[in-house]
């Protein structure tokens, strides 16, 4: 089993691909670090004009790789370091990217996948794509910065439903909420994403970078500022019974008992 975040370039386009064979591209800790490195590299390639973000094998990203969780999630400082120094650092690198980002969303887009997609400027999905963040079943909340990011992208009502009721929604519901630009037949998705990325790449690159800077400034002035007071105690749940039971139940393939 291999996992990676791949990067290839083709003319003015870059393609970032999430890959975790057999796990629907669930994000490992190493993949979060690679994602950050990939987007930091993209910042130094001025010839590029657009980035397409997608997954391998018919899925976008099914969330975090839960098989790793028992090794670090039950200690406060390790949990804090994971979310702040690995996950958020990668998402922040995506948000800081001056290039337009287009998400190609197939299949599962859950948890971490939803966060990665939320960093993209334009999102297109196949009609069979599914969206959610059912971590309530695992006994833990979404980290504050990540929750603010998702809430800002999908809207308050859907964010609350996904996090409080562990609901999973189809692509049309996410399009109606404004999260997706278009929903396409699965077989047509990749071609349309490529066409859309090429349309962006044919336009004025300096204007695109200035627009991205404006969006970034507006975001910084908005929801992210509200999470600062929460960070001091955000990871105190690390060693709670609910947290341990949720992850143990998932790994044992049984319903959790909360």
Would you mind describing this structure in some detail?
By secondary structure, this protein is α/β, with parallel strands linked by helices. It has one domain (3-189): Alpha-Beta Complex (2-enoyl-CoA Hydratase, Chain A, domain 1). The protein contains nine helices and nine strands. It has helices at residues 29-42, 76-96, 112-118, 144-154, 156-164, 171-176, 186-201, 205-221, 241-252, and strands spanning 3-10, 13-20, 50-55, 101-105, 108-110, 122-126, 130-132, 168-170, 182-184. The strands form two sheets. Strands 1-2-3-4-6-9 form a six-stranded mixed beta sheet, with helices on both faces. Strands 5-7-8 form a three-stranded mixed beta sheet. A hairpin with a 2-residue loop joins β1 and β2. The longest helix is centred in the middle third of the chain and has 21 residues, at 76-96.
As a whole number of angstroms, the C-alpha radius of gyration is 18 Å
Helix content: 40-55%
> So what's the CATH class?
Alpha Beta
Q: What is the CATH topology assignment? A: 2-enoyl-CoA Hydratase, Chain A, domain 1
Total domains: 1
Give the structural class: alpha/beta
Outline of the structure:
The protein is α/β, with parallel strands linked by helices.
Which key terms come to mind for this protein?
258 residues; alpha/beta; 2-enoyl-CoA Hydratase, Chain A, domain 1; six-stranded mixed β-sheet; three-stranded mixed β-sheet; 9 helices; globular
């Amino acid at each position: 089993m291999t996992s990676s975040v791949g990067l290839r370039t083709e003319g003015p386009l870059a393609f970032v691909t999430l890959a975790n064979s057999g796990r629907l591209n669930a994000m490992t800790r190493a993949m979060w670090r690679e994602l950050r490195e990939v987007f930091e590299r993209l910042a130094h390639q001025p010839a590029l004009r657009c980035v397409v973000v997608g997954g391998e094998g018919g899925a976008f990203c099914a969330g975090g790789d839960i098989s790793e969780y028992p090794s670090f999630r039950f200690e406060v400082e390790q949990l804090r370091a994971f979310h702040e120094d690995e996950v958020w650092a990668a998402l922040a690198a995506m948000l800081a990217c001056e290039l337009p980002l287009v998400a190609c969303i197939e299949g599962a887009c859950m948890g971490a996948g939803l966060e990665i997609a939320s960093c993209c400027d334009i999102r297109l999905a196949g009609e069979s794509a599914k969206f959610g963040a059912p971590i309530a079943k695992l006994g833990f909340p979404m980290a504050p910065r990540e929750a603010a990011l998702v809430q800002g992208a999908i809207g308050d009502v859907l964010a609350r439903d996904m996090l409080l009721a562990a609901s999973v929604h189809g692509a049309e519901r996410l399009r109606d909420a404004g999260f997706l630009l278009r929903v396409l037949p699965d077989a047509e998705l990749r071609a349309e994403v490529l066409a859309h990325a090429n349309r962006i790449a044919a336009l004025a690159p300096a204007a695109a970078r200035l627009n991205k800077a404006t969006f970034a400034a507006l975001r910084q002035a908005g929801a992210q500022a509200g999470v600062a007071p929460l960070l001091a105690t955000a990871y105190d749940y690390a060693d709670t019974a609910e947290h341990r039971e949720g992850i143990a139940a998932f790994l044992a393939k049984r319903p959790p008992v909360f």
